[in-house]
């Protein structure tokens, strides 16, 4: 796998960090009319789904708490709370650490098994490389949602 794949992941995560760090906690939690979730949920969801796509499908333990994944995985919705400064810092750390961990784990060859899975996007994942590539697409889609939510959450 090329370095560009991981560089794209870093770029997407950096864009997500920009919103996490520059939007008020109230705006992070706001669900504009016509939307079903908020900026906070979309950013946390990216971390949760990366864990499922790459680690769970590879038969490995999550590198974040399972309760975090359960709270933000596909099919969940925001609970209405406004994130605290501490929660924002924790999510900031997870955005950075899980990107670095994924790359390090891939380079160390820890992803030796993979359970094939077809995403709701209609894309079949057959190996860890497919999952990493698709994760970039998935996070890019949610970055687009974050941009739209930010526009309407003014």
From TrEMBL:
Pfam families: DinB_2. InterPro entries: DinB-like, DinB/YfiT-like. Residues 11-145 form the DinB-like domain. This is DinB-like domain-containing protein. It comes from Capnocytophaga ochracea (strain ATCC 27872 / DSM 7271 / CCUG 9716 / JCM 12966 / NCTC 12371 / SS31 / VPI 2845) (Bacteroides ochraceus). The lineage of its organism: Bacteria, Pseudomonadati, Bacteroidota, Flavobacteriia, Flavobacteriales.
């Amino acid at each position: 796998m090329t370095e560009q794949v991981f560089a794209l992941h870093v770029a997407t995560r950096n864009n997500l960090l920009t919103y996490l760090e520059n939007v008020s906690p109230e705006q992070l939690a706001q669900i504009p009319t016509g939307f079903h979730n908020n900026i906070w949920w979309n950013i946390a969801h990216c971390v949760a789904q990366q864990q499922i796509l790459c680690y769970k499908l590879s038969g490995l333990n999550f590198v974040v708490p399972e309760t975090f994944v359960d709270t933000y995985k596909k099919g969940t919705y925001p609970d209405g709370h406004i994130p605290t400064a501490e929660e924002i810092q924790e999510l900031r750390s997870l955005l950075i650490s899980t990107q670095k961990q994924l790359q390090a784990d891939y380079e160390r060859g820890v992803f030796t098994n993979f359970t094939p899975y077809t995403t709701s996007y209609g894309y079949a994942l057959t190996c860890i490389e497919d999952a990493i590539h698709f994760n970039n697409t998935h996070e890019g889609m949610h970055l687009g949602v974050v941009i739209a939510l930010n526009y309407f959450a003014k």
